[in-house]
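Example S7 (structure tokens).
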């Protein structure tokens, strides 16, 4: 399975805003975006302000790239998700965001069972979670309403999962999910509504990008 191995703080700097790819570190002064909030590259701070002169295509591209980086999805997979969203009834942009939100790794993150999506992907890949009672190690698995996610019995004795309830408890979960910290499980109640998804994502620009 392919994955991005470069410095993730560069991705935030390139998009010109925090994408919170490092979890708690993003809320501290150690965050690279706080120290160098300009795009990476040889032009450095001189490239600030270019967003004011962006073409329509550049705005569409940046919206698509930001969504990809927030959810940790590569180009080919993202394009496939867009094709699936087009075939579904309803608004294509909302369908796309719902697909991204219901990925298994994202649900693990939203439930508070990982500090960021990268850690959630790692935990899923290592087979620490069950979906509807069956072990799964596919982070891109799309959950449906009624699906139940739980930590495997064999994983609960590890140091990471013993401390998990205390770490997850302060995290607020979205209303389309239900969480049981005692059983270390969660349930997808329904598809998320637009107001319950990251408001910084501009799905209309993504639709326009693929509709060129």
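Recovered sequence:
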């Amino acid at each position: 399975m392919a994955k991005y191995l470069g410095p993730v703080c560069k991705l935030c700097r390139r998009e010109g805003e925090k994408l919170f790819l490092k979890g708690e570190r993003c809320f501290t002064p150690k965050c690279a975006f706080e120290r160098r909030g300009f795009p990476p590259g040889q032009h450095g701070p001189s490239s600030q302000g270019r967003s004011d002169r962006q073409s329509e295509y550049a705005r569409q591209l940046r919206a698509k790239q930001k969504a990809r980086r927030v959810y940790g999805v590569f180009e080919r997979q993202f394009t496939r998700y867009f094709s699936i969203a087009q075939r579904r009834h309803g608004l294509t942009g909302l369908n796309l965001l719902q697909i991204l939100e219901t990925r298994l790794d994202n649900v693990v993150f939203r439930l508070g069972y990982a500090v960021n999506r990268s850690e959630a992907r790692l935990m899923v890949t290592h087979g620490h979670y069950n979906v509807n009672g069956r072990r799964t190690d596919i982070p891109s698995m799309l959950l449906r309403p009624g699906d139940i996610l739980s930590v495997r019995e064999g994983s609960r004795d590890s140091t990471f999962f013993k401390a998990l309830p205390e770490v997850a408890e302060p995290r607020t979960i979205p209303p389309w999910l239900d969480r049981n910290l005692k059983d270390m499980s969660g349930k997808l109640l329904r598809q998320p509504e637009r107001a319950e998804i990251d408001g910084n994502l501009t799905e209309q620009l993504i639709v326009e990008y693929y509709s060129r």
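Notes on this example. Residues 7 and 176 are 32 Å apart (CA to CA).
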